[in-house]
């Protein structure tokens, strides 16, 4: 069935309700995006389509999470290509609202605060970024709630969902590890009725994590950027072998590339994102951790991460 595009919350509710009814659906998945989609987003959509009867994808470039107006203006808008990609993965409905639809009164006076978890790593380098990201994610999770457009006593029902409403899942990429951790924390702390599903990072054949920002890299910069994933793979191999991670040597490898300006590189607890310094030096690695890295490659800021386990 061809994908349907809607631009208002009212139409989103009406169309998702219709789809659930027509399909006798018992589950709905939400895939929030900012557009400029690539194979990483396709993996999110495919995963959602494989686990739900109805899938909604959102395409919205959120001004609240851009600290630099130039960066916001520069962000690519590729709606036609995005719709084609989503349709190919089995997405039923695309919601591409205007800024005025999402923020009808202008910039919101009340926002979600990311707290201590949002002040480190990306939050330290981009103050206010996660407050803006969580604010729009909260709104999108509300917009995408299945059954919002169903009349009482009619439409789809789920045997396993509380209150008879369809099961609800939202899909986020593990490449944005800090954002994923924050969304999970927000959903838990604020009792959102949605399951958050993390989807593994998708990489190009040479190991570079897919990102909408990769298109801004020159050939030389793209080649230099490969050092990020190579350094992460080095830590992954050492962790699997239960060797000391020797983070300093991996960091030196990154810093040896003249086009790469390292922002941070550390090994942290996957849930709290607190550094695990004892696993980084001379002691053999044990357990579970997450390696985080961010750097500017030429003018382009890239982030990546790698789950570690022994």
Notes on the structure:
With 310 residues, the protein is an alpha/beta fold. The strands form two sheets. The protein has a six-stranded parallel beta sheet, with helices on both faces. β5, α8 and β6 form a beta-alpha-beta unit. The longest helix is centred in the last third of the chain and has 22 residues. It is globular. About 4% of the residues have low confidence.
Give helix and strand order, one letter per element, not per position: EHEHEHHEHHHEHEHHEEE
**How would you describe the shape?**
globular
Give the N-to-C terminal Cα separation: 45 Å
Give the DSSP E fraction (strand runs of 2 or more residues).
15-25%
How is the secondary structure organized here?
Layout: E1 4-6, H1 9-22, E2 27-33, H2 39-51, E3 54-59, H3 69-74, H4 79-88, E4 93-95, H5 99-102, H6 122-125, H7 129-143, E5 167-173, H8 177-189, E6 195-199, H9 219-240, H10 247-255, E7 260-268, E8 288-297, E9 300-309
Parallel strand pairs: 1-4, 2-3, 2-5, 3-4, 5-6
Antiparallel strand pairs: 7-8, 8-9
Helix pairs in contact: 7-8, 9-10
